[in-house]
Design brief:
Elements lengths: L7 H5 L2 H22 L7 E3 L2 H8 L3 E7 L4 H6 L3 H7 L5 E6 L4 H6 L7 E6 L2 E6 L7 H10 L4
Parallel strand pairs: 1-3, 2-3
Antiparallel strand pairs: 2-4, 4-5
């Protein structure tokens, strides 16, 4: 009989080890799936009109309107974590799904996505329309200049 068959394996690797590893793996899997589904876990998601108003009323806030089906949104999505850390001292970044907040999108005249709106103390100071937000470079150029006016 092999040592492994006699229970040595379970003495070396108790079931608690596998349970904790399983929990870690499940958490990591959920984080990865959120990113792939268009919901990065780093950048705050706006889920209501009230939350939008509260998030933009004070300080400097950059809002991106997106949709899960939008190819341009998916193209720039991997850069949000980088942008959030790069601009952390200048402004915060939040995201709002245009399809989940249609009244807000209509009120703000979000006609194309992605659209970025820069707010300072509740006032819109700059806007990047979808036709100009197709690449990382275009968005970064806007983020660099949005609050310099």
């Amino acid at each position: 009989m092999c040592e492994w068959e006699g229970g040595l394996f379970w003495k070396l690797y108790p079931i608690e080890f596998f349970a904790s590893f399983s929990m870690w793996a499940r958490t990591r899997y959920n984080e990865i799936m959120q990113v792939q589904e268009g919901r990065p876990y780093v950048v705050k998601q706006i889920t209501s009109n009230e939350e939008y108003a509260q998030s933009t009323q004070s300080g400097r806030v950059m809002v991106e309107f997106y949709a899960n089906w939008c190819p341009d949104c998916k193209r720039i999505e991997p850069y949000f974590e980088e942008w959030e850390s790069k601009y952390a001292g200048d402004f915060s970044i939040v995201r709002a799904n245009r399809d989940e907040l249609p009244e807000l999108g209509e009120k703000l005249e979000i006609l194309g996505i992605p659209t970025f709106i820069a707010y300072e103390n509740g006032q819109e100071v700059a806007r990047l329309f979808s036709r100009d937000a197709k690449s990382k470079e275009q968005v970064e150029a806007f983020l660099d200049e949005a609050y310099k006016k």
